[in-house]
Amino acid sequence: MQSVVTEARDQRSGAKKEVRWLRAWPNQSSWEQLRLEKAMVKLFILFLNLLIVVHAAASKIEYGKFSVLEEFESLHVEEGNEVEDANIPSWSSSQRGGKVLVNVDSFEAAGDGISDDTQAFLKAWDIACAKPKAVFLVPPGRHYLVNATRFRGPCSDDLVIQIDGTIVAPNEPSNWDPKSAQLWLDFHNLNGVLFQGNGVIDGSGSKWWAASCKKNKKNVKGLTIQNSQQMHLVISLSDSVGVSEVQISAPGDSPNTDGIHITESTNVVLQDCKIGTGDDCISIVNASSNITMKRIFCGPGHGISIGSLGKDNSTGIVTKVVLDTAFLRETTNGLRIKTWQGGAGYVRAVGFDNVRMEDVANPIIIDQFYCDSPAKCQNQTSAVKISHIMYRNISGTTKSEQAMKFICSDAFPCSNIILSNINLESKDGTVETYCHCAKGFGYGVVQPSADCLNSHDEDLFSIGWAQKAATV
Ligand SMILES: *[C@@H]1O[C@H](CO)[C@@H](O)[C@H](O)[C@H]1NC(C)=O
Ligand SMILES: *[C@@H]1O[C@H](CO)[C@@H](O)[C@H](O)[C@H]1NC(C)=O
Ligand SMILES: *[C@@H]1O[C@H](CO)[C@@H](O)[C@H](O)[C@H]1NC(C)=O
Ligand SMILES: *[C@@H]1O[C@H](CO)[C@@H](O)[C@H](O)[C@H]1NC(C)=O
Ligand SMILES: *[C@@H]1O[C@H](CO)[C@@H](O)[C@H](O)[C@H]1NC(C)=O
Ligand SMILES: *[C@@H]1O[C@H](CO)[C@@H](O)[C@H](O)[C@H]1NC(C)=O
User: Fold this and answer.
1) 279 given a catalytic annotation
2) What is the 3-state secondary structure (H, E, C) of the chain?
3) N or C end of the chain: smaller count of CB under 10 Å?
4) Ligand nearest to the CA of 192
5) What residues line ligand 5, using a CB cutoff of 6 Å?
6) Which of 45-49, 54-58, 368-372, 424-428 has the lowest mean pLDDT?
């Protein structure tokens, strides 16, 4: 076991603050393997850098080559980014190993799946949040019915949220504020917390999802209501958060219910999560940076999304997102970046690595014309810019003919899209790539071919040159 100390900024004061991550390597050989893998990744990045330098130099692209390299260098998962479960003392004692257990059962949670345990959770939260090294425990073997609730920080250091039991959403749609996004379990303004456990966050019994706006479009008045979204687990305005082995479920036909939603948060690691839902398995929106996702299982659902961003001419900024190792099954999108027309800001430095898809519609998609309103969206000039997006080792089966879609803005084309080792096949034959105003290049096997990314002759020339240079 090893303790990794990183620095983070305190949400309130802005002061630098140490955040401790507990990391345990299972054994020596897997550690060695990890080192080997990291070395290989670094080698690949070096190699890629060479390609980009050559590419940039040859086509005299407007950006400085050094900033381009920096963007991509930030994409490999750093050592220490891995979060291993913190050791939790046994349930019998309330205090061991410096950890303080705060069990929701001690606050009269019924755990029967019928009684409302919201108050018990909130009381336990207040205590756990106030105590350093606390473990907020949802014990195994029971079902806790919890209303839509915001769990507010800031909390004391080293808080662990241990979910071993099942948290279920209320059956009836309650009188939630219809104007705002409907967040079920919203963890807000936290700094340095770790979610873990073998429990389930289960929204599947809820009529709440079923009564959602998307299904009843015609019955609901007002844009805000129609577009209000529902999220299972929300991490908002937080820094240094780890989420490990959390399971989230909802029926595939529950509309607009994101699994894990990250907003205005930095330095987040999601790993070993299994998510099935009616909307995005994971969505990452505005003002989020350094988000790492590892070993994610997604399906059913709409895939893993950055966005949507830029709605109603707003500014959206998301940078440094890495997904490494994922399995997506029967989702309506795979890896998606979606922005509304008319927005501002940017999405930059995103890497999707080692993803296996099975029966996924739109496995790889960038959509700068995202429009989720009942009224048709007007074409607009401004856009959330999208650049430095890398896809490596993505394979599997696609349900749509256009396995890769890069639908970018005329005024702000997508740039520096890099594809490597892509193999997407459809069961019934042809697959292709669609590009609109997207620039970048492919390297290694890229199936379907992404020649449409090379929209300019000089680029074509430089790619030929880069590939030749790379083989010397
Ligand atoms: C849960 O929400 C319902 C509907 O808004 C409300 O009546 C009930 O009191 C809430 N429960 C708690 C414990 O807040
Ligand atoms: C990114 O986040 C991880 C996990 O919180 C952290 O260990 C790492 O230092 C962060 N990287 C940067 C550049 O802040
Ligand atoms: C997105 O974040 C930026 C920077 O934090 C902020 O200026 C902007 O208002 C945010 N946009 C939205 C839609 O909240
Ligand atoms: C966004 O900007 C466009 C162009 O300036 C304008 O026509 C439109 O009404 C704006 N939309 C909103 C929601 O403010
Ligand atoms: C490619 O990705 C798949 C799926 O995650 C993984 O099993 C495989 O090991 C990866 N291949 C390489 C060379 O990393
Ligand atoms: C909006 O822009 C897209 C992309 O350039 C174009 O295909 C479409 O025809 C435009 N729509 C209108 C109504 O101008």
Assistant:
1) yes
2) CEEEEEEEECCCCCCEEEEEEEECCCCHHHHHHHHHHHHHHHHHHHHHHHHHHHHHHHHCCCCCHHHHHHHHHCCCCCCCCCCCCCCCCCCCCCEECCEEEEEHHHHCCCCEEEEECHHHHHHHHHHHHHCCCEEEEECCCCEEECCCEEEECCCCCCEEEEECCEEECCCCCCCCCCCCCEEEEEEECCEEEEEECCCEEECCCCHHHHCCCCCCHHHCCCHHHHCCCEEEEEEECCEEEEEECCEEECCCCCCCEEEEEEECCEEEEEEEEEEECCCCCEEECCCEEEEEEEEEEECCECCEEEEEECHHHCEEEEEEEEEEEEEEECECCCEEEEEEECCEEEEEEEEEEEEEEEEECCCEEEEEEECCCCCCCCCCCCECEEEEEEEEEEEEEECCCEEEEEECCCCCCEEEEEEEEEEEEECCECCEEEEECEEEEEEEEEECCCHHHCCCHHHHHHHHHHHHHHHC
3) C
4) 2
5) 325, 354-356, 393
6) 54-58
- Domains of the chain (ranges plus CATH)? 2-75 (no CATH), 94-209 (2.160.20.10), 220-469 (2.160.20.10)
Ligand (nearest to CA of 312) = 4
Q: Which of 117, 118, 121 to mutate to test the pocket of ligand 1 (most atoms within 8 A of CB)?
A: 118
- pTM of the predicted protein model: 0.80
pLDDT (tens digit per residue) in 219-228:
222 222 223 4
Q: What is the pLDDT of residue 101?
A: 95
First to last CA, the chain: 44
Residue of minimum CA distance from atom 5 in ligand 2: 267
Look at 80 and 198; give whichever has higher pLDDT: 198
pLDDT at position 428, please?
84
